[in-house]
């Protein structure tokens, strides 16, 4: 059924308290739930009680302690209905029995390598007991857990531990947890298992003592330190920057090895995919250290933006996700390099969200309707949702933004809120009308800003013409103008020129607001012909169409005061030439000429100040990916032609830099033991970026370097970079290093995931066979989401091989989606999302991709998850 935003109405019943008694058993877990029900004054009086379920088995049912006669209720695995419940407060006792070991969907209560754990967002709690499983029903939970001591010496739930003891006989024990904060069911969690932990005491800024702990599989406690350290840092940051203190006596993080997503913000008991917890120099890369820091922060920040203030309904998902992504991005920016973080985030936004917006799965930041909510945990809700918050801050200014956040925390604390309530706080705090701005939540699609400038030398006047448009998206053919904050500067020979204008669109401080289809801004007293630097810091999630010459862009690269636009300027030069070269009938000379210009610019940049900020330099060296070029071309895409042009340009740049390579790599080499900090990581990033270019420009010499670096490397970052560079060099030495890598990391599944992925990404015709062979490797398993994402997800991200001209890539991925759908629909539907860009392909591939999608769509008994993606992708 289609669920619509406009159909929202409050629940007829509320549940004030939940007392859960869970007796853990691998196949027969018993759950007794005691619910205190009360008619909702805002609901329909005398309404029936309809509780949600999902694959549940009811064992007993009682009202106010009295067993219920079967004639007064109906029950199926999906619902428990009492047509005529008491017209007043009453308690309902529900007993269910579950099989956590058989739960391969990884929603509700399941077992992951012998650890009991839960995932209840968005609608997993109904797989544990019958419930009003909707986020606006908030309850105080008390949870008693019981288990065999040998199997589950650790028993955790939300809130604070209030009792624990052995049971008579000594084999079993129990623990009671109480969470005083009312919460929706999706934030419920429990964990039981044999786990090691690291711990630390923390005192909040407002003087509350908190016991922090990170729980991991036995023997892995020495890999939990970074997560704990990140937790302490982000807790302090949230106090300092957002004025938010933690609010329980305990905060626990648990890492499990089978998890559908990244992590989950359950109140006081965050559960993580172990990929985002475990780190030591030998088994985690610099990128892993950074994502662990970011995701630990993300889940912790949800304690206020998500838990204390939750969502009224799932249409408001961006209320917590967009805002919390914004908060974690800001934390990482403060902990590391702000410009480099911004560049990395924009790369992700463009590759994941812009591509989503450009295809059949496009939807607004706040969708209006859904069939399966789990399919809306998307880059649009998360990443574009964060961009909307960032724009709001730019538009109303830092001070008003801070006042708006404070007002939101004060006014909405303890409630299940909406986007309207959120925006209302900022309208009030800033005195600005945000009705037009709110369109960002309703309208899908990536706007394009067309800009052009004219300089009148005699009048010393510079006029900037700006226009916006948004292409149609599914279900939204007519688009309205949105509010686009455009941060800008006019760059002269000696840097930024003063901005003087009487235009209403100019908000001061280098900010022009384009909120109409088009407008012009005239700047006065402009002493010389400037180069416009627009969208500084990527001030809006939009495409910019501004026709600057290569020479002007190269000037911006060296002269712009905005680091983001310095980076962007070279990306723009490369994008333009690759877009041209990736189309049929391209002129090879143009590519060669641009390659010379880029090579020279990069060479002098690296010599002059490449070493002053290596992390930034690494970003500068990394060209837009072939998939970015495909998206820019937008239609009739030939992945092979784009890839060939990309290879040519990268190889030419590598050749131009070859002379500098040994010197630079030498200067960047580490002294001393591995440290994960941003500066050290930046040096490794640049050094390894150079290795990748060398692999294209001088393969034989580079193969030597890869082997040396693999042997000498004392950390996974450098060893994996050696493997990745070697994958660019076909031949026996590559195969030997691949084999050697697997041997070095046998028994390290998270490292072998990277090994699987590196091979899945090889842009050669043999890759499909290689991937099929790897599916038989002991390191692979279709049952583990991380393994699937690494190998099959990696292959689906391989532009040329997934999009093979013979369609074999599509058929392979479609077959796996179908197989996986039977055990884990969420992972299957995510994988099917790899088809999201099929409509932009040339006719042959397009037809084959459509056929593969149609074959999936036509199958009987598909999950709602997969059926929804298949239908929308084909519509
Ligand atoms: N709230 C989690 C986070 O972003 C994501 C959980 C989504 N899980 C799901 N099955 N849809 O931090
Ligand atoms: Zn989140």
From TrEMBL:
Domain Peptidase M1 alanyl aminopeptidase Ig-like fold: 445-545
CDD domains hit by this protein: M1_APN (cd09600)
Domain Aminopeptidase N-like N-terminal: start-end pairs: 27-187
Domain Peptidase M1 alanyl aminopeptidase C-terminal: 550-875
Protein's UniProt keywords contain Hydrolase: yes
Catalytic reaction(s) noted: Release of an N-terminal amino acid, Xaa-|-Yaa- from a peptide, amide or arylamide. Xaa is preferably Ala, but may be most amino acids including Pro (slow action). When a terminal hydrophobic residue is followed by a prolyl residue, the two may be released as an intact Xaa-Pro dipeptide
Transmembrane segments: none
InterPro entries, per the entry: Aminopeptidase_N-like_N, Aminopeptidase_N-like_N_sf, PepN_Ig-like_sf, Peptidase_M1, Peptidase_M1_dom, Peptidase_M1_pepN, Peptidase_M1_pepN_C, Peptidase_M1_pepN_C_sf
Descriptive protein name: Aminopeptidase N
Species the sequence originates in: Bosea robiniae
